[in-house]
Design brief:
Elements lengths: L1 E5 L7 H11 L6 E5 L3 H14 L3 E4 L13 E2 L1 H6 L4 E5 L2 E5 L2 H10 L8 E5 L3 H12 L4 E6 L2 H15 L3 E5 L4 E2 L6 E4 L14 E2 L8 E4 L8 H8 L4 E2 L1 H17 L5 H11 L4
Parallel strand pairs: 1-2, 1-3, 4-6, 7-8, 7-11, 8-9, 10-12, 11-13, 13-14
Antiparallel strand pairs: 3-5, 5-6
Helix pairs in contact: 1-9, 4-5, 4-8, 5-6, 8-9
Length: 276
């Protein structure tokens, strides 16, 4: 068995995608989404993974940081970033990994190179932290974190610079966000726009350069209100589903030892979203 631990998880299509890919490769595996109400229940769930026979689980919000003390070991990415987005169970040991940012980098670079990009990220939670560090490692020249929580934003900015040497700063999020001049990549790393609420990202759209690459981490819907508006203004866009495919392929290979074809994952996620 494999699965996901987080809250909320209902709208995420990852279970349908993984089950379809398992079936394609003839693997007798299943993927279970588990809505974990609080950190006390998270500790119980982690303890239950070994006796229940799990081979691995994904970790999503809000537990990517809280899960780390519950593990036997973590890889170098988790050590640098301070968050884990999936676990493997190896010889009875729970090992934490983080490829959130790696999936984002692969998805973005299918649309535009990251080298020398000036990045603005809206929100900076567990996934946002990993993405920020990986964007810096991939060649971004500067990052600005815009968050409502100052401590969180400053901490992520400091982690980016410590891990990569790339300069990063924090700006407060108050009301509508004006995009800083010179921004060449804008990412929504919040839950704004997720189904079923489909909330708008409060942005001063006239401050956005039409040449700026616009990225959203939301997976359902594929084209959020944020991306739809950016596309209408002529911006190249990268959706969260593409990120999900890229990171899920890496996790699948880590769990199963099978190197998947991208088309299999693309078809599976399109069907899960009702697109195919």
């Amino acid at each position: 068995m494999t699965g996901m631990l987080g809250h909320p998880v209902a709208e995420n299509p990852i279970d349908l995608m993984f089950d379809a890919v398992y079936a394609h490769y003839g693997l007798p595996w299943q993927f279970w989404k588990n809505d974990i109400a609080n950190s006390d229940d998270l500790a119980l769930a982690i303890k239950a993974l070994r006796p229940l026979g799990y081979r691995g689980v994904g970790i999503t919000v809000p537990y990517k940081v809280a899960v780390i003390p519950l593990l036997d070991a973590v890889d170098g990415d988790v050590e640098a970033i301070g968050a884990a987005n999936y676990l493997t169970i190896e010889n009875g040991r729970l090992i934490g990994h983080n490829n959130d940012g790696k999936g984002v980098v692969k998805a973005i670079e299918k649309v535009a190179p990251l080298k020398d990009r000036r990045v603005v990220m809206l929100g900076a939670g567990g996934a946002g932290l990993a993405m920020a560090v990986e964007l810096a490692w991939a060649g971004a020249s500067h990052l600005t974190l815009i968050t409502r929580r100052e401590e969180q934003g400053r901490e992520v900015a400091a982690t980016v610079t410590r891990a990569s040497g790339v300069p990063a700063d924090w700006q407060p999020w108050s009301g509508e966000v004006a995009v800083p001049a010179g921004t060449t990549l804008l990412m929504n790393a919040t839950h704004l726009g997720c189904a079923p609420e489909l909330e708008e990202v409060p942005l001063v759209w006239d401050t956005l350069d039409p040449a700026c690459v616009v990225v959203d981490v939301i997976t359902n819907p594929r084209i959020t209100p944020f991306l739809a508006t950016a596309r209408q203004r002529g911006c190249p866009v990268v959706d969260g589903v593409e990120m999900l495919v890229q990171l899920a392929m890496q996790i699948f290979q880590q769990w199963t030892g099978v190197t998947p074809e991208e088309e299999v994952f693309q078809r599976a996620v399109a069907e899960a979203l009702g697109e195919g």
